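From the methods appendix. Each design record in this collection lists the tokenized structure first, followed by the designed amino acid sequence. Records were kept in a plain field format so they could be parsed without special tools. The example shown here is representative of the layout used throughout.

RECORD:
FOLD TOKENS (155 positions):
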């Protein structure tokens, strides 16, 4: 006749089985969590990446500038512009980094002492990125000896 295990033996066997099952579950959970962490990166460092600034640069001989609405351009002033109209003129070639359906530029007019004595403007349409476009500024106001860019927009 075989003896049946007493109640205390059954309880000990049940506790061991429960403990072993709990350890197996804990081990699987630990393995899942550990495998989802990329050990090659430092967890204290942020994971976002700072965007790189645009790398466009103006062609050789052009000064790099940015339009009032943030478009990088190149500007090259003509040393001897052809003045077909008016008493004076200024001319510049521009190259844009993006297509510009409309381009607008205004210049401030200065006299020999550097005083602002007025302004004029020019515009162009249908500019393709990288294409050379000529702007011509001219007028009849007396005393104009130099100019500077006042406003540029690509839109």
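DESIGN:
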């Amino acid at each position: 006749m075989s003896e049946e295990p007493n109640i205390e033996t059954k309880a000990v066997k049940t506790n061991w089985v429960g403990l072993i099952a709990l350890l197996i579950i804990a081990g699987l959970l630990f393995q899942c969590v550990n495998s989802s962490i990329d050990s090659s990166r430092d967890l204290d460092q942020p994971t976002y990446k700072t965007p790189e600034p645009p790398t466009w640069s103006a062609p050789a001989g052009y000064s790099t500038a940015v339009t009032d609405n943030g478009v990088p351009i190149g500007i090259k002033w003509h040393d001897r512009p052809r003045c077909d109209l008016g008493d004076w003129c200024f001319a510049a070639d521009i190259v844009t980094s993006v297509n510009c359906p409309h381009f607008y530029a205004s210049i401030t007019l200065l006299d020999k002492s550097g005083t602002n004595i007025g302004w004029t403007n020019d515009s162009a349409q249908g500019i393709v990125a990288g294409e050379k476009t000529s702007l011509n500024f001219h007028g009849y106001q007396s005393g104009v000896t130099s100019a500077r860019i006042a406003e540029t927009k690509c839109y």
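APPENDIX NOTE: The beta strands are 63-66, 72-77, 88-96, 100-110, 116-127, 132-139, 146-154.
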